[in-house]
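stage 2 :: seqdesign
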């Protein structure tokens, strides 16, 4: 799974060219709160705590 790199929006439509809260949604539950873009996960902390351990990550949040 390869997404565009940081700051590279060439594959994004113009309407997505905004920054800040509300842009990134959790791809698991759809929330925009607490979404982790780190590691290009795009999942919220809540989902992360459920998913990441199974992926080998350790989350202490
Ligand atoms: Zn979620």
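stage 2 :: out
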């Amino acid at each position: 799974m390869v997404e565009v790199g940081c700051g590279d929006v060439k594959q994004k439509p113009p309407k997505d060219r905004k920054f800040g809260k509300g842009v990134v949604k959790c791809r698991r539950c759809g929330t925009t709160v607490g979404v982790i873009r780190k590691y290009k996960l795009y999942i919220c902390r809540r989902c992360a705590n459920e998913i990441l351990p199974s992926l080998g990550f350790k989350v202490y949040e």
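stage 3 :: structure notes
- Helices lie at 45-55.
- Residues 26, 28-29, 31, 43-44, 46-47 surround zinc ion (CB under 6 Å).
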